[in-house]
Design brief:
Strand order of the largest sheet: 1-2-3-4-5-7-6
Number of helices: 5
Order of helices and strands: EHHEEEHEHEHE
Number of domains: 1
CATH architecture: 3-Layer(aba) Sandwich
Structural class: alpha+beta
Radius of gyration: 16 Å
Strand content: 25-35%
CATH class: Alpha Beta
Distance between the termini: 44 Å
CATH superfamily: Gcn5-related N-acetyltransferase (GNAT)
Number of strands: 7
Length: 166
Amino acid sequence: MEESTQIRIRRARPADAERIAAFVNRGRPHKPVTPSGVLQRFGTVGFLLAEVEGEVVGLLGWQVENLVVRVTDFLIFPARLNLSVGRALLTAMEEAAQELMCEAAILIIPANAPPEVLQFWETFGYQPRDIASLPRAWREAAREANPLQDQVVLKQLRTDRVLRPI
């Protein structure tokens, strides 16, 4: 598989649970998951799959609440496809989030994450932000994702904030 190969992004279905579990276990063998565990996640998370020549090479899990999209799962394997598959997955998620009128996309990265992890997200326009400085709805989404974290990585998707119900 080369980076120039066509990347296909699609919404995952419950029927993909076995393929998703196999992919996650290949990419993160130290934290195994089962197809039934993946099926349970479908109750709370939407998944996008990245495929190259029919093989799963990327996964993005996301939730939307109060006009904020939160990335809950993100895995690309093999690592040499990080930029091309990452761009494709994030673009698809951001486009879907904008259709839902989302104002921002946030993700929680561990406080001790290596600098290259932050650099990866910055490549796509995501910036570290102190949770305390965020608008209330964004702050609540960040706190719900990880109450112990002081920072998130965030990308504003809309310049015009929604201040009244749509």
